Amino acid sequence: MRDINLLQWVGANAIRTSHYPYAEETIAALERHGILVIVETPGCSIGSYNDQLLREHKRILDKMIGTHRTRANVIMWSIANEPTNTTRPDAVNYFKELAFHVKELDPTRPSILITGEFAHRNASTSAVSFRDNVILKKVFVCTIVDYLPITEDKQTLRM
Description:
Layout: H1 2-9, E1 14-16, H2 24-32, E2 36-40, H3 51-68, E3 74-81, H4 89-105, E4 111-115, E5 133-138, E6 141-147
Helix pairs in contact: 3-4
């Protein structure tokens, strides 16, 4: 409750969860106080991409979205925080698979990828090309740098 009071005191109206699952009660308390939430997976600093990790990441997304998708204050799903090597083909395929999986689970909300890399500059050839938004993370600053929605056929991006 104290954290919510502090958020309101500084005039904040939204938060992005950390890289661990938040309790359902916390998201509910934020909802009662009108605080919007970007819910994030514990996929932090991923740099190696394989089928076993992809299955686990999808399982976590299934649980996260299944738990919170009926919450009115949840506005986005964060697929991962600061993955590395996002221009490698295995990373591109990995995040493409996750982005489409999130859209199947909840087509009503955007997905995001938080990155500290400059992959957004090569948006068509990196893992960032398959999400709805990218947040470029700099020291103390986060900004949405571009918007490239996935098309209806789920194969290409609308530019």
